[in-house]
Design goal:
- Strands 1, 2, 3, 4, 5, 6 and 15 form a seven-stranded mixed beta sheet that branches. Strands 9-10-11-12-13-14 form a six-stranded mixed beta sheet, covered by helices on one side. A two-stranded antiparallel ribbon has the order 7-8.
- Helix 1 packs parallel to helix 3.
- Strand 7 and strand 8 form a beta hairpin.
- It is globular and about 50 Å long.
- By secondary structure, it is an alpha/beta fold.
- GO terms for molecular function: omega-amidase activity.
- This is omega-amidase.
- One of its GO terms (cellular component) is mitochondrion.
- It catalyses: 2-oxoglutaramate + H2O = 2-oxoglutarate + NH4(+); 2-oxosuccinamate + H2O = oxaloacetate + NH4(+).
- Its EC number is 3.5.1.3.
Length: 278
């Protein structure tokens, strides 16, 4: 039986070029969220660094030895809250990853998700971006537990791949969290649409956590951090400015929706299926 309620805070953080200032602001927001009763606090993609391939190498750190990891660990322990650490550029040997860390209430690293699907797109006259020029993809699904609730992690472009969400739902997740930095082209078109699609097709809660918008940045984030329920309804949403969304996620809704529309029992696995290969 899933825990009935989990109070979460989704932090839409303003991100600049000063790493120490970015991290200090994230720590401040974690403590503020805890003061509002949050049990889990999630940060956005690339919260300690500008988003851009030319920045990843300079801002990259080892996990969990880097300064950002140490700051998140300390903040989680001091606040007594689970922290989903958005993403940071991670250095591991000669490779770089876009990585989300998760810290429990004692400051222990309990999960690490490396972005599996790299953002390589080319929309003529709009945006061209190739993360694969500098980043390597992760190869593992990531699930952790907070207050009895199984939570699955994806990062930004991972949101477009429903097979990944399906496997996390199949393994018991009632909430999926996607730190992401959709841009001014894909954000208006697909940010909310994809979040609602994943919530609807997997019948669970979906949290999308964006950085705040900086119109002067080289890569301008869409913002609009959003929380979606298992019916596919948007229950809370921010605008483009720095802010924190705090909401209690009712996990009993997951069971209610799945019992009302029992698609899990109706899938034709004699004809098709989605399987975890590793």
């Amino acid at each position: 039986m899933l825990n009935r309620g989990l109070k979460i805070a989704l932090v839409q953080l303003s991100v600049g070029k000063d790493k120490s200032k970015n991290v200090a602001q994230a720590v401040k927001k974690i403590h503020q969220a805890k003061a509002k009763g949050a049990q889990l606090v999630a940060l956005p993609e690339c919260f300690n660094s500008p988003y851009g391939t030319k920045y990843f190498n300079d801002y990259a750190e080892e996990v969990p030895l880097g300064e950002t990891s140490r700051a998140l660990s300390q903040a989680a322990a001091e606040a007594g809250v689970c922290v989903v650490g958005g993403t940071v550029p991670e250095r591991c040997g000669d490779k770089l990853y876009n990585t989300c860390t998760v810290w429990d209430i004692n400051g222990k690293l309990i999960a690490k998700h490396r972005k599996m699907h790299l953002f390589d797109i080319d929309i003529p006259n709009k945006i061209t971006f190739k993360e694969s020029e500098v980043l390597s993809p992760g190869n593992e699904l990531t699930i952790f537990e907070c207050n009895g609730v199984k939570v699955g992690l994806g990062i930004c472009y991972d949101l477009r791949f429903q097979e990944m969400a399906h496997l996390m739902a199949k393994e018991g997740c009632g909430l999926l969290i996607y730190p992401g930095a959709f841009n001014m082209t894909t954000g208006p078109k697909h940010w909310e649409l994809l979040g609602r699609a994943r919530a609807t097709d997997q019948q669970l809660w979906v949290a999308l956590v964006s950085p705040a918008r900086d119109a002067n940045a080289e890569y301008v984030a869409w913002g609009h951090t959003t929380l979606i329920d298992p019916w596919g309804a948007v229950v809370a949403k921010l605008d483009e400015k720095e802010d924190t969304l705090v909401h209690t996620v009712d996990l009993s809704m997951v069971e209610d929706v799945r019992n009302s529309i029992p698609i899990r029992l109706q899938r034709r696995t004699d004809i098709y299926d989605t399987v975890r290969k590793s």
